[in-house]
Amino acid sequence: MSQEELQGYKGVALQALRQAGAKIGDLIRITKNGITYEGILIPRSELGDDKHIVIKLKSGYNIGVRITPNTKIERIGEGAKPTFAAPPPPPKKPELPKVTIISTGGTIASRVDYRTGAVRPALTASDLYSVVPELGDIAVVDAEILFSLYSENITPEHWSEMAKCAAKHIERGVNGVVIAHGTDTMAYSAAALSFALQNLPVPVIFVGSQRSADRPSSDAATNLIGAVTAAAYAPFAEVGLAMHETISDTSIIIHRGTKVRKCHTSRRDTFKSVNSKPLARIEGGKIEMLVEDYAKRDSSRKLVLKPEFSEKVALIKFYPGMNPAVIDWYVDNNYKGIVLEGTGLGHVGRYCFDSIRRAIKNGVLVTMTSQCIWGRINMNVYDQGRDLLALGVIPLEDMLPETALVKLMWIFGQTDSLEEAERLLRMNLAHEYSERTIYE
């Protein structure tokens, strides 16, 4: 019996299953210490140990049984290998708007096979309709699996591919695009596409989930319904990010791609708009705009695609006692831009000034943001800030540090000219700057 037929098993467990003539999907009986367990043999993670066999009980629960010398295993029935067969999609309603969902990975882009307990991608159109049948009443949904990545593995190269893929579908005439993404770096990707997709005719909505689909508290379906609703019907044509507004399921909030941050490790309302109001709220299937200044949906508008990014940009968080040689390393390795995440109104220790001066002298664009979540920097208040301005550090007002990093990466993907880079940096291209600080 091949190891492929006993996926994930090795060592003692693999030998015991081979002796019993069992394979994945078979009904087996395990007797140990006078206790008998019966269930379907299911695969194991390849990273698991070699001493446990996992079965799915009739109750639906999975258990692992440790193999000892007195453990007896019997194969008592032949079963089909675990598979998932998506039910047929509901009849399409051709009069509805057309929305494409692009999957890059993450919790929302998977479903649980309850026969095995395994998680698998669920981003074909038929899978989506089976998981969230309500989509059939909102839009004609198509889907494309672009990547299947944990979001921390996504790089600027992936941002470029996302932008190109979204542009492809927009040029084919869809009414909106949804991008399913892991939540950990989703704000970076949303900012990236805010710069890469210019003059948008329709919305592009990022969406993720904090809880996997096998949990009763999963937010995947609610978030996806909100994102597709926004893509299909929202009056704006910008890059947004759709997630729970509160911990309850009552409303989905749409944040601007350049003004949003993940603020909690596990809460369903983890994403918050920073220094800006959210774009819109979706509740009961209705869209409420929360700002007046937004780009209007216009299908006749011609998309401008600028998907290039440079990775020669660094984000440096200042901390007391930081070694300024960190800055020198980026200069010596030909980095083009540095975003400093300074304290308060935009400060770093004076012991960093010589390295900053050297960076600017060597043609590195050095910018300043704040470690504080809310508010804007003002480097004219204290002499420390004024001295940094005199060195040539560029203040970025209320721009989020991660947005500043992404914008500089995008800028140096468009130009090598320091003067042009500074000009683009000071422009408010995708609402990355707020005109004034909002206190709530």
Question: What would you say this structure looks like, in words?
Answer:
The chain has 440 residues and is an alpha/beta fold. Helices cover 24% and strands 24% of the residues. The chain has an 8-stranded mixed beta sheet with strand order 9-6-10-12-13-14-17-18, sandwiched between helices. Helix 3 (156-171) crosses helix 4 (186-196) and helix 4 (186-196) runs parallel beside helix 9 (401-414). The longest helix has 16 residues, at 156-171. The protein is globular. The mean pLDDT is 90.
Average residue pLDDT: 90
What fraction of residues sit in β-strands? 15-25%
Total number of domains: 3
**Low-confidence parts:** none
Q: Label the overall shape.
A: globular
Which architecture of the largest domain would the CATH scheme give at its second level?
3-Layer(aba) Sandwich
Oligomer: single chain
The strand order across the widest sheet is 9-6-10-12-13-14-17-18
Helix content range of the residues, please?
10-25%
Calculate the terminal CA-CA distance, rounded to whole Å.
66 Å
Produce a short descriptive summary:
With 440 residues, this protein is of the alpha/beta class. It is 24% helix and 24% strand.
Identify the notable features of this structure and list them briefly.
3 domains; SH3 type barrels; eight-stranded mixed beta sheet; 23 strands; alpha/beta; Rossmann fold; five-stranded antiparallel beta sheet; 10 helices; 440 residues
